[in-house]
Amino acid sequence: MSQAFTYIVECADGSLYTGWTTNLEQRVAVHNAGKGARYTRSRLPVKLVWWEELQDKIAAQSREARIKLLSRREKLILIQQRTEGQAAERAD
Hints:
The protein is α+β, with helices and mostly antiparallel strands. It contains 4 helices and 3 strands, in the order E-E-H-H-E-H-H. The N and C termini lie far apart (31 Å).
């Protein structure tokens, strides 16, 4: 099974876009080249603010669908929890 990622990018206008990919770095570059999702094309640049590695494409798509049901506030909490977790890992 190959790895896949669900991710959230913050657009230049402050909005959040959720997607999934098998190559996170390349996908963010595609978004910033204006060749990604229609939604992000007019909101460049985008910045990766959250991601989660999953076991495969199906799991990543399922997670994406669940995140898209969250409110903006809930997505911001998800992002904040990830950021705090990364800061704690760096402190160790």
